[in-house]
Write a structure and sequence with these properties.
The structure holds two protein chains of two kinds.
Chain A lengths: L3 E4 L2 E4 L5 E7 L5 E8 L3 E10 L2 E4 L7 E2 L9 E3 L8 E8 L7 E2 L3 E5 L1
Parallel strand pairs in A: 2-11
Antiparallel strand pairs in A: 1-3, 3-8, 4-5, 4-9, 5-6, 7-8, 9-10, 9-11
Chain B lengths: L3 E3 L4 E4 L4 E7 L7 E6 L6 E6 L3 E5 L2 E6 L4 E6 L8 E7 L10 E2 L3 E6 L1
Parallel strand pairs in B: 2-11
Antiparallel strand pairs in B: 1-3, 3-8, 4-5, 4-9, 6-7, 7-8, 9-10, 9-11
Classes of the chains: A mainly beta, B mainly beta.
Chain lengths: 112, 113
């Protein structure tokens, strides 16, 4: 089944404890992206990657890191999480056109 | 300021009616426009895309684009309770870089049986 898989689905952590949210797609898509979704603010792009080893900042990159060492994987790293990073995170991929995104199921992160 | 604007709603329509969802965007040179549907507690899913001025129909859905007015809309004909969801407009804004997709905050639609 074609899909974007995110893990974990839920995560509760404490301020400053490094964490990684994994994202993997099995559709051989070139483009991958991370979004966060907050009530009243909508979906905001954190980082995106056009291809392996090519990444760029979205609208809200502060406090996040990404890497794209393989085509299928695009992990999101929070090296020192803070409470304002409590949010619902979505990973997405696209075969080529930026807007035709396939989304993962989401990761609900709570930073205490 | 690169922006995609939508009315937050909620928009309530009776079953069988036409639901009209609207979106405006800031960059006149934008070329690609998308509508996503997001059910409560679920991830967004792409339902329509449009690149050229005019209408594009797919089943009960019609996307309308007017680049001169910087306006894109989604019409849902014969609305069903299963259409109740939040609808997100997304635009590949020219000013944001060719690989960025900017979403509006979404319009919540309720279809009343």
């Amino acid at each position: 089944e074609a899909q974007v898989t995110q893990n974990p689905r839920y995560l509760i952590t404490v301020t400053g404890k490094k964490l990684t949210v994994t994202c993997s797609q099995n559709m051989n898509h070139e483009y991958m992206s991370w979004y966060r979704q907050d009530p009243g603010l909508g979906l905001r792009q954190i980082y995106y990657s056009m291809n392996v080893e090519v990444t760029d900042k979205g609208d809200v990159p502060e406090g996040y890191k990404v890497s794209r060492k393989e085509k299928r994987n695009f992990p999101l790293i929070l090296e020192s999480p803070s409470p304002n990073q409590t949010s619902l995170y979505f990973c997405a991929s696209s075969p080529g056109t930026v807007g035709k995104l396939f989304f993962g199921s989401g990761t609900q992160l709570s930073v205490l | 300021q690169k922006e995609v604007e939508q009315n937050s709603g909620p928009l309530s329509v009776p079953e069988g009616a036409i639901a009209s969802l609207n979106c405006t965007y800031s960059d006149r040179g934008s070329q690609s426009f998308f509508w996503y549907r997001q059910y409560s507690g679920k991830s967004p899913e792409l339902i329509m895309f449009i690149y050229s001025n005019g209408d594009k129909e797919d089943g009960r859905f019609t996307a309308q684009l007017n680049k001169a007015s910087q306006y894109v809309s989604l019409l849902i004909r014969d609305s069903q309770p299963s259409d109740s969801a939040t609808y997100l407009c997304a635009v590949n804004l020219i000013g944001a870089g060719s690989y960025q997709l900017t979403f509006g905050k979404g319009t919540k639609l309720s279809v009343i049986p």
